[in-house]
Amino acid sequence: MNASAAEQLPVVVIGAGPVGLAAAAHLAGRGIEPLVLEAGPSAGTAVRAWSHVRLFSPWAEVVDPAAEKLLAPTGWIRPDGAAYPSGGDWVQRYLQPLADVLGERVRYDARVTGVARAGRDRIVDSGREEQPFTVHIERADGSEERLLARAVVDASGTWSTPNPLGANGLPALGERAAGDRISSRVPDLRDPVVRARFAGRRTAVVGTGASAFTALAHLADLAEEESGTHTVWVLRRGLTGSTYGGGEADQLPARGALGLRAKKAVDDGHASALTGFRTAAVEPEGDQLVLVAEDGRRSEPVDQVVVLTGLRPDLSFLSEVRLGLDERLQAPTALAPLIDPNQHSCGTVYPHGANELSHPEKDVYLVGMKSYGRAPTFLALTGYEQVRSVAAALAGDHEAAARVELTLPETGVCGGAGLFDEPNAAQDGGGCCSVPAAPQLITLGAVGSGSSCSTTGGGC
Fold it and tell me: Which of 35, 55, 297, 395 has its C-alpha lying 20 to 30 A from 218's C-alpha?
C-alpha cells in the first residue's frame, strides 16, 4: 500500500474509556479519522464497573479540552469544576455524551484480539513500515473481523487484569480453585447480594493502597451494623506509621481521609493486621479458606478474600508488534524512569508525550493507564496530555508533539477514588492538592440525600 493510501486509513484507538475517547477527540481535531474499538457494550465500560466510586480529582481535572470542544456545540453543560464526580457521574455526564458525539467513530462489542503489520509477523523486517496495521476483532456474537489502520493507539487500560493473590506475582496455589470466594474489586456493599456475602462474616483484605483502605473502611461500617463482621488485613510488609499514608498531613485530603479511616478500623477492632505475610497458597478449611504464607504461617479461617494488590497490562494481543518495554514495569522504556513508583508519586511524574511513548514499532502507542504498566501513579490529566502529543505526532506536527502543555503543581494532582462524601470538603485548603488549614478526619458514612453514588474507593 502506498503512503497516500495508508494515510486515508483510520487510526484505531483501543478502548472507549476516558483516555481513549480523548485520543479520538484530539485526532478528530487534527483532521485524522479515529476508529475507537470498545470491548464492552457502551462507553466507559471499566468505569461503570466502579460507578459507586468517588474520585479524588475534581471535574476540572477529568475533562479533556479537545473533548470539551466537541461537546460544546451540543449544548453540553460543563459540570462544576470544583466538584468531585463518582465513576457513574463521569460516565453519564461526560464519557457517554462524548462517545455519542463521536458517533460511528466508536464501535462497541468489538474486542481487539490481535494487532500486527499486514502480511508481516514480528520477525520480518522487509517493507515493514510501509505496511498498514491489521487489527483483529471479535464481536459479541463470536464473529471475527480484520481492519486496516494507519496507526494504533492502545488505551485499553489495566482494569481487566488485576494482580493475583500470590506474593510472587503468580496466582497462589489453590487461588483459582477458590475463585468463587476470592474477588479483586472493592465490594459495593449497597448491593444486597454483595452485602450478604460479607455481613456477619470474616474477610481477608490483601493490599495497602487506596482500594484496600476503602474496603477496610466499608467493612468496618458494616461491622458496626452487623455483629460477627470482621476483617483480616493482610500486608506483605510491616505495619508502621507510614502504612496509612499522610493522614492529616496528606496534601490530598480525600486520600488522607482514607488512611485515617483504615487506621480507625484497626484501632476500633473491626480489623486485625496480619503483617509481613506473603501469600503462597489458599487452602480450604471446612466451609472457609486459610491463607498460607511463604514462611509457613497460616491466617485464621475467613469466608471471603478481597485481593487489592494492583493491576497489570494485558499485552497478549500485541505479541506481533515490536514493543520496547521496561523489564520491571512493563511500561515504555523511556517512560519507565519517570514513573517508577520507587521514586515517584503521581505528583512528581513529569508530563510526557509521543517521544517517551514511542516503540521500535513505528506508530504504535500505549497510552493512559496501559502505558504505565504496573506503576500505580497514573493521572487522567497526564493521559490527556499523552494523547494530545500522540495526535500531534501522527499529524506530523512534531514541534507540538514535543511541547509540554501540562504543568502539574509541585504537590501533585492525584487521580483515583476514595471515601469522599463531601464534594466541597477539600476546597477550604485551596484545592485537592493543598494542605487544609485545619486538617481533620472527613466524616464517612451514608451517601447524602439526593446523591446517586456511594463512597466505595479503589483505583481509578
Answer: 297
